[in-house]
Amino acid sequence: MANPEPATPELPTPRLEFIFAARVSVATPLELGDVGKGGRRIVAITGGNFSGPQLRGEVLPGGADWQVLRSDGVAELEARYTLRTEDGALIYVRNQALRHGPAEVMAALAAGRPVEPNAYYFRGATFFETGAPRYAWLGEHIIVCTGAREQARVHLKFFQLL
Length: 162
Known about the structure:
Elements (H helix, E strand, L loop, with lengths): L15 E11 L3 E5 L4 E13 L4 E4 L4 E6 L5 E11 L4 E11 L2 H8 L10 E9 L13 E7 L3 E9 L1
Antiparallel strand pairs: 1-3, 1-10, 2-3, 3-4, 3-5, 4-6, 5-6, 6-7, 7-8, 8-9, 9-10
């Protein structure tokens, strides 16, 4: 007689909890050209602000978004920058995201024309580091984000995966 398989335990269903929204100002992209895996762009982060129920503050200038525009139309994004909270804590942010959509929508974005955020996909996984104990929880959870791109700004909303 074969041993019955053990029952699968009841696993939690993930849910999202809003953390904060950010408005990130960006410079004109630097186009490096085709680097073998796609077109490389570097977009400097020039500042911005963020706010949410548990933290608020400013996006410091000096970070950047390193992008690869793949031949299939998908943009691989890796942004690294620093937040300073209203109470003075510094938080390092590393956001890895994908952005893509219909060719005409992406062409409009590239030209700096307004595009409805629901017309394309812009999602990311975000990782935080800080020495401030009151914000250490950011580095202990999976954080995801959704975004929208404008000509000189990126809007982001961050959610903790519970």
